[in-house]
Amino acid sequence: MNLTLFLLALFDGIAYAALVFIVAVGLTLIFGVMRILNVAHGSFYAVGAYLTASLTTFIVSAGLPPIFSFPCMLISAVLVGAVLGGPIEWLLLRRIYHKPEVLQLLVTFAIFMILEDVQRLVWGTQPIFESTALQLLGTVRAFSVNYTVYQLILLPIVAVLLLFGLRFFLRRTLAGKLITATTEDREAAQAIGIDADKVFLLTFIVGAGLAGLGGALASPTTSILPGIGADMIVLSFAVVATAGLGQIEGAALTALLIGLGRSFAVYVWPETQVLVPYLIMVAVLLVRPEGLFGSPAARKI
Amino acid sequence: MKKLLMATAACITLPLAAFAQDKPDAIKVGVTAFLTGPASVFGVPAKDAAEIMAEQINEAGGIQGVPLELTFIDEGAGTEVLTTEYRRLVENGADAMLAAISSGNCKTIAPLAEDLKVINIMWDCGTQKIFEEDSYKYVFRSQAHAGTEMLATVAYLLKTKPDFKTIAVVNQDYAWGRDSWDIFSAALKALRPDVEVVGEFFPKFGSPDFSTEISRLQALQPDIILSTSWGGDLDTFVQQAAQRGLTEVSTFVLPLAESSLERLGSSLPSGHIVGARGDHYWNHPERRDDEDFKTFMAKFEEKTGNKAIYPVFHMSQGLAALEAAYDKAAETKGEGWPTEDEIIAAFAGLEFQGLGRPVTLREDHQGVEAQLLGTSVQAGELPFATLENIMIFDGAELTTPVGEESVAWVGALQPGWVDTLTVDTYEN
User: Which of A21, A81, A294, B137 has the smallest C-beta neighbourhood within 10 Å, fewest atoms?
Assistant: First the structure.
């Protein structure tokens, strides 16, 4: 492998990692705060993608400038977080926080299944492709290979902004500090007057919104069809587990590792492409069972 | 024990009752198709088509005066559910079954049909292995198999791009992606041993992203890129390749792209090779002026809003085979309703016609189906690519002879074999 191919693989890896990070960070945030492994995260991703495609199609057919496809993504993410995430936390999850993990997993899985069918009802089974936003930004040429600006430049920028934005939010803002405090110790937080219910609701809305944003950002690059949510959730779990549950910086690093591992596999040994993310996960967990950034915690009794 | 005896008694008397019966009230046919999951891109149009066709048959008085009654089973629910539902339909008196879309499901169902003693027409699955590895009494195939389809693709490629030097493949990582490449590469090696395979990629089934493969392909710059992918995978691959200019550098060979033309819209540029798993095309050059073809296409477009794709043609062949077998059996018998064995006998050497050219069944129950391929062109009249330089190959010359194994047979072909083929060429 020469330097050119090395750089090409690097570019591909970063572009892929950016998208994986955006989805996984929402999952890890929800887990970090609420200690719930949310399988429905995959549905939020899918609905975000579908919504963006529909809104963009509407905008293009209404004759509005294609640049409006970018606000569509934000609108979709907010809708997924507020309209879908909010009520789910408020009506369902709130009742099961003190129940065994298996039950929590089953409930979120049930939501996932229901939402899968909702998608089928609303958007049908035919693949949808809506790439207005991606085409708008055009391509760049690097080492005689064309990349889309959208994937090579925009997605990594969004991912980095999101990483630092979340860090800032959790450490510097009041709402963020409340979330962090509740994460550390729920009882103590409630004892000093933090409304934990509100914090959970806020976290879930933000987390679901991030999944929606991931779907929205992915939508111009891929066919949207039934089943995309399931694929993404499996990969996100791998990222979150490798990173250490609840670790935002860890999720960023792991997404990068997995993205790069996958793209180098395609260049060096394509047959192992599917395997690489999980090999990385196994390797990390063998050495550090709590994940890259996780710290061994006292178990709930 | 008593229950068991009763059940046994019922099993013995039921077929007798069927024998004694004169004309049944309906010919009950079970159809399996993907109504959910990624392959519903094929199953849903096929179901729509089957409903229109059954309606047409029944309006014309049914098969030998008996109406056709269809029941659908979703292949997307998994093999377990499929076999249970299949069994249930047969035990409830289905006269024949049309199964399946998935090759895996065909492999499961062929022996099951044999056990249940029910006529099963394999109407869409591609695997060539069923009749090459086993022989069946009750199982028939109303269409070609992967061997014929891949060989036709190689033939079209060699006829239209005789001078290419390098090829890369991007197939889905499951049975069809692997098997189709085995046949294609064996044929290519036999017919053009000098061609170099520069890349073999098998991204996972349902992959949402081919960016890395596309970067790699742009660096490799192969003359030809083959992909037997379909549905969302094919759409994503072609769209991402078009966005990044790969479709300008290499010629794509897409044996299943006929089923994606309308969805791909303007993303599939002119000049790429498109196949249709048989002589299937909404604008079939030999059939487009025929009244039955025009009537059906109008009805289908009205019902679904889309052009008919190959599973629709396959469905038409499956139902046509059934109708032809009943007609032939009834004619041979003269008086009374034919028995199942008489219908099975009628399938031998049966010729029938769906929406494409007539298909014939060989002694091993394999259908011999013509193959249509063309080159994509953005003519501007429609918002998606149509086909030009269409070639229709005679199916018999491309189908592995009875008793031979496809990969071995195509591997033994000699360079120059392509020039011996019977081909009809149409401008569009």
Answer: B137
B253-294, pLDDT tens digit by residue?
999 999 999 999 888 999 999 999 999 999 999 999 999 999
Within an 8 Å CB–CB cutoff, is residue B222 touching chain A?
no
A contact test, residue of B215, B240, B262, B268 with most A CBs within 10 A: B215
Q: Output the pLDDT for position B20.
A: 45
* Both tokens assigned to A78: 């907010």
In the predicted structure, residue B403 carries a pLDDT above the cut 70:
yes
What percent of chain B stands above pLDDT 70? 95
**Chains A & B: contacts with CB separation below 8 Å:** 112
Element (H, E) at A46: helix A41-61
Res. B5: pLDDT tops 70? no
Residue A130: pLDDT band (50, 70, 90) is confident
Nearest to A12 among B38, B204, B212 (CB): B212
Query: Is residue B4 scored above 60 in pLDDT?
Result: no
Q: Which residues contact B420 (CB under 8 A, 6 or more apart)?
A: B397
Q: How far apart are CA B105 and CA A85, in angstroms?
A: 38
Same fold? B27-143+289-365, B147-276+370-426: yes
Verify whether the Cβ–Cβ distance A8 to B219 is below 8 Å.
yes
Quick one: three-class SS letters along B229-298? CCHHHHHHHHHHHHHCCHHHHCEEEECCHHHCHHHHHHHCCCCCEEECCCCCCCCCCCCCCCHHHHHHHH
Let me know the angle formed at the C-alpha of A21 by A18 and A27, rounded to the nearest 5 degrees.
Answer: 155
Q: Is the CB of residue B263 less than 8 Å away from at least one CB of chain A?
A: yes
Determine what percent of chain A is predicted with pLDDT higher than 90.
21
Confidence of residue B85 (pLDDT cuts 50, 70, 90): very high
Domain B27-143+289-365 architecture: 3-Layer(aba) Sandwich (3.40)
Q: Taking CB atoms and an 8 Å limit, are B212 and A227 in contact across chains?
A: no
Confidence of residue B9 (pLDDT cuts 50, 70, 90): low
Interchain contact B105–A (C-beta under 8 A)? no
The verdict on a CB contact (< 8 Å) between A144 and B201 is no
Mean pLDDT, rounded, for A174-203: 85
* pTM for this prediction: 0.85
Q: Under CATH, which number does the domain B147-276+370-426 receive? A: 3.40.50.2300
B256 and B277 in contact (C-beta within 8 Å)? yes
Helices first, then strands: H and E counts in chain A: 14, 2
Nearest to B173 among A16, A222, A274 (CB): A274
